[in-house]
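Project standup — Tuesday

K.O.: blocked on the structure for the chain from last sprint. Re-posting the sequence here as requested.
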Amino acid sequence: MGNDLFNSIAGVYGWFHRYQMKRFSSILDQHAERVGLSSIRTICDVGCGTGALCAVLADRGFAVTGVDPAEKMLAVAKRKSVSPNVEFLQGDALEGLPFADDSFDLVFTSYVAHGMDSAKRKRLYAELMRVASRAVIVHDYNEERGVLTTFIEWLEKGDYFGFIKRPKAEMEEVFPSIEAIQVGKRSCWYVCRCPQHPQP
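H.V.: unblocked you, prediction finished:
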């Protein structure tokens, strides 16, 4: 999917910013300790969209950098997230993120991977692992399909149907260790440990 699509729907995503924050906050309340977030200081959210996750993380005291290729998404994010703990930058992981190796303790990416074909997903995973010193969390769909999700993803013309066939197995081709944590009926945190830090 191109940036034109996400620029065109940035305003719509903005309407759901508060709902997204509430959902991300609930997931963090339930699963933060399981992935060792108490030992984390710096986080990058790649494909941050309108910045809902960034805002939640920043409110919890993390130093957060949100990255997205769509400038209109970032414009909404900057309006919605006013915490001094968060910075937003335009960038595309497939073209290389503007950070040195091991720049962040933890890297998140939420509902980004399924929109890419398999080859691009593997490039994404490799780039996320490059800039993460401890772990990468890929927040995305699991194998459970829903009618509405199926229809929306068909309209968006990503690779949702390819992604959900074997998400964990595909990630294991890039990451040395994966733990899938179900965080919703149709979603998981795929927690990918970096080789130098087997635990986050």
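K.O.: great, moving the ticket to review. The chain has a mean pLDDT of 87. The longest strand covers residues 132-141.
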